[in-house]
Specification:
mainly alpha
C-alpha cells in the first residue's frame, strides 16, 4: 500500500506540474495513473471477494443476498472515481450527473434486497 500511495502522490505532483503547461495532457496523465493504480489494487478486491464467499458459506447465505451489496459498493467506487476525475478536468456538471446516475444505479442494484426483505415480512405475517 505504501508503494501505491507513493505512486499516487508522485502522479498527482506530475499532474500539477504538467497542468501549468498543458491542462489536457494533465488529465490524460492523471487518468492513466488512476488506471494503473486501480490495476494494482485488483488483488485486494479479489481477496475481499474470496473472504465474502467464505463468510457467505459460513452463514449459509445465498449469493443473491451478497450480490446486490457487492454491486452497490462497486458502483459507489466507480462513481466516486469518475466524478472526481471529471471535477479535476473542470467538468462539475458532468461530475454531478455521474453522482446522480451512480446513486440511481446503487438503488437499482439494491432493489433485489428490498424485495427479499418484503417477501420475508409477508411470509411472517
Amino acid at each position: 500500500m505504501m508503494a501505491l500511495a507513493a505512486a499516487g502522490v508522485a502522479a498527482a505532483l506530475c499532474g500539477v506540474v504538467v497542468r501549468q503547461k498543458s491542462p489536457e495532457l494533465s488529465i490524460l496523465l492523471v487518468l492513466t495513473a488512476c488506471v494503473l493504480l486501480l490495476w494494482n489494487t485488483l488483488p485486494f478486491f479479489q481477496t475481499i471477494g474470496e473472504l465474502l464467499e467464505e463468510l457467505a458459506a459460513l452463514g449459509e447465505l445465498s449469493p443473491a443476498v451478497l450480490q446486490p451489496m457487492v454491486k452497490t459498493v462497486g458502483l459507489s467506487l466507480v462513481t466516486k472515481l469518475s466524478s472526481s476525475l471529471c471535477r479535476d478536468a473542470g467538468e462539475g456538471g458532468i461530475a454531478a450527473f455521474l453522482e446522480v446516475a451512480g446513486g440511481g444505479g446503487a438503488v437499482a442494484a439494491a432493489l433485489p434486497l428490498l424485495k427479499m426483505v418484503l417477501e420475508l415480512v409477508v411470509d411472517l405475517l
